[in-house]
Backbone:
C-alpha cells in the first residue's frame, strides 16, 4: 500500500472563501512568471493553501516546491444579508466513474452555498469532500436558474 | 384545524433559541425550505438567516415589502404597535411568569407554597360547603 504524504480536505464547519495567488519561482530564464489566481473554498487558510497547490499541480504542472504563494486572503461576502441564487459547477468521483454536475443553492453567502453543496453531495451521492472539485461558483440572476427547488422561492406573495 | 399563522413577508416571530433568544423579529424574506431572512431592529436582532425551527410565529404581521430596510421595518413596526400587542398577549405573560418562577429565592418559594396552601384550603372549604348544601336539598 502507498504511503499517503498529504492530508485530504474535509469540509469542517462553515467553509470560507479564499483568494489565493501563486506562481512559479522566478528564474534567470523567466524573471516574471505568470500569476495564477484561484477561488478556494476551505475551512481555514492552511487547507486553502493545500488545495491551491493540489489544483496547481493538476492544472498547471506547478508543485509547491516549484512555486511560491504570492497572496492569500479570506474573501468575505460583499452583501451577507442579500439572498443569492448560486450556481455551482463541480466534478466528483463516484464509485464507478467521475462526473460533472451543475447544482443550484439559495443562500445569503457564497461560502454558505458551497458548504451546503458539500453537505448535499455527501448526502445525495455519498461523495466525500476530497473527491469533489469545485470548478465554478457564480451568483446567477433569478431568470437563469434551472433547478425547481430554487425557482419555487422566486415568487413573492406579499 | 385551519392554519392562521403563515410564514410570510412581515410575519412577526419570537426567537426561541440562539444568542437572540427571547427577542422578536420580522421575516423579511425566505432563503429556502429551512431558513428565513430575518430582522428585528426594535429588539436588537441583526439582519441574518435563521432556521424556521428557531422561530415561533406570532399572530402579528406588519406591512413591509420584500427585503425591506431597517428604517422601513421600524416604521411599520411602530405603526402596527407590535410591542403593545406583544406585551398584552398570553404568550408574553407566560414567558414572564416562567422567568419569575425561575428567579425565585428559597424564601420566595416558601411564601408561594404557603399562599397556595391557603388558597386551596378556601377552595376546598367552598366545594365541601356546596356539596353539603346539595346533600341537604336531597
Residues:
Amino acid at each position: 500500500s502507498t504511503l499517503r504524504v498529504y492530508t485530504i480536505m474535509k469540509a469542517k464547519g462553515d467553509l470560507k472563501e479564499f483568494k489565493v495567488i501563486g506562481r512559479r519561482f522566478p528564474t534567470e530564464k523567466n524573471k516574471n512568471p505568470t500569476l495564477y489566481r484561484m477561488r478556494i473554498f476551505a475551512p481555514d487558510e492552511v487547507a486553502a493553501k493545500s488545495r491551491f497547490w493540489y489544483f496547481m499541480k493538476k492544472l498547471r504542472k506547478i508543485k509547491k516546491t516549484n512555486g511560491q504563494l504570492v497572496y492569500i486572503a479570506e474573501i468575505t461576502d460583499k452583501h451577507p444579508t442579500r439572498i443569492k441564487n448560486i450556481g455551482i459547477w463541480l466534478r466528483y468521483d463516484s464509485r464507478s466513474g467521475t462526473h460533472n454536475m451543475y447544482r443550484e443553492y439559495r443562500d445569503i453567502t457564497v461560502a454558505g452555498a458551497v458548504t451546503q453543496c458539500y453537505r448535499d453531495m455527501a448526502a445525495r451521492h455519498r461523495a466525500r469532500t476530497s473527491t469533489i472539485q469545485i470548478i465554478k461558483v457564480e451568483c446567477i440572476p433569478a431568470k437563469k436558474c434551472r433547478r425547481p427547488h430554487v425557482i419555487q422561492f422566486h415568487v413573492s406573495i406579499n | 384545524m385551519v392554519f392562521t399563522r403563515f410564514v410570510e413577508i412581515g410575519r412577526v416571530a419570537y426567537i426561541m433559541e440562539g444568542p437572540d433568544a427571547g427577542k422578536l423579529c420580522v421575516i423579511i424574506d425566505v432563503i429556502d425550505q429551512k431558513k428565513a431572512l430575518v430582522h428585528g431592529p426594535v429588539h436588537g436582532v441583526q439582519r441574518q438567516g435563521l432556521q424556521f425551527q428557531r422561530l415561533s410565529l406570532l399572530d402579528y404581521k406588519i406591512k413591509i415589502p420584500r427585503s425591506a430596510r431597517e428604517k422601513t421595518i421600524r416604521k411599520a413596526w411602530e405603526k402596527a404597535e407590535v410591542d403593545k400587542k406583544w406585551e398584552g398577549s398570553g404568550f408574553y405573560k407566560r414567558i414572564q411568569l416562567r422567568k419569575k418562577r425561575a428567579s425565585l429565592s428559597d424564601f420566595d418559594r416558601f411564601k408561594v407554597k404557603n399562599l397556595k396552601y391557603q388558597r386551596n384550603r378556601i377552595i376546598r372549604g367552598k366545594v365541601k360547603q356546596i356539596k353539603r348544601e346539595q346533600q341537604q336539598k336531597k
Summary: Chain B has a mean pLDDT of 96. The interface with chain A takes residues 8-10, 29-33, 37, 47-49, 65-67 of chain B (CB under 8 Å). The first strand of chain B starts at residue 11 and ends at 15.
